[in-house]
Predict the structure.
Amino acid sequence: MHAWPASEVPALPGKGRDLRIHDTATGGLVTLDPGPVARIYVCGITPYDATHLGHAATYNAFDLVQRVWLDTKRQVHYVQNVTDVDDPLLERAVRDGQDWTELAERETALFREDMTALRMLPPRDYIGAVEAIPGIVPLVERLRNAGAAYELEGDVYFSVEADPHFGEVSHLDAGAMRLLSAERGGDPERPGKKNPLDPMLWMAAREGEPSWDGGALGPGRPGWHIECVAIALDRLGMGFDVQGGGSDLAFPHHEMGASHAQALTGEHPFAKAYVHAGMVALNGEKMSKSKGNLVFVSALRRDGVNPAAIRLALLSHHYRADWEWTDPVLDTAVERLGRWRAAVSRPDGPVADGLVEEIREALANDLDAPSALLAVDRWVAIQQSDGGADESAPGLVSRAVDALLGVAL
């Protein structure tokens, strides 16, 4: 599966700072010190309704992570998956009378278009769950052979008891886990499971649903969590730098994925930091496909909204915050974009070296994009009121805003 084209990242003078970021597993800030190649895995979309602003906010956060690392003169190995077979996708296809593969392909193509418009840097590896199945089957067999998985009426379940570190990502109690499992694709009430929280690794073929050859497992399709584990282990290996996604993935998805990988390898941790973006609401409720209260990037673009303004609207909220999309949020972003573009279009301006360092410092401090925007606002205000004599300043500001914030002026 191919990703989307990369926009050029301008080179800046000097060197960026190492990133301090909030790690869900430790509950505090950690300073990431990757090697020459920083490794990040971000969970991708289930392509049946893309790309809403909740998606965009999440991928914007991890785009900033890439940009901070690139500014430290590192390379970045970014991997993202597409859950291109899953119950919600199949249910939507049946509801709309569509072929599920055509639905997945169409929505994935739209997602690529939106990511390109928003200047999100693409992953090096963009992998669909379906194409990963040949690598998933052996992992499930290994878990079963090691006694870390068991069969129940043809389905194969992972035993959470097999990982002594289970629970160390989300730090939830068993009751909270059980509730979230039921809400987020699990089946804690199924009779016969060893533990209600045990997640499915391999679903035996169901009538009328797609299935693949599982070898000794029999025909079927993989569970949600093992898909990401197989892709991450294959492309990044254990102990990669950041596992990322929305805050609703901390449990069960990232918790279960970590346990799968740790039981498979005997190593810990799966990722050095678990980083989660907040949720975006509309009309007082979290944007979700099930509720239908979605604002789509493609719809905003069709209405003539500049993608740079959409990106500025996302950047105006801290990535970990839960916030609400409103017309004033977008109006403020449109107005800000106009002021910034007018400022950098002038032939000279106030010295901007300090501004570049302010943006770097803000982003290195847990991706504090709102503070970075305010720093640019201050430079623009001086430019508007007093001007300046530095002919290189507008160009430097334009390059810095592009390289570090992903906004083309």
In short: The chain has a mean pLDDT of 96. Residues 315 and 369 are 6 Å apart (CA to CA).
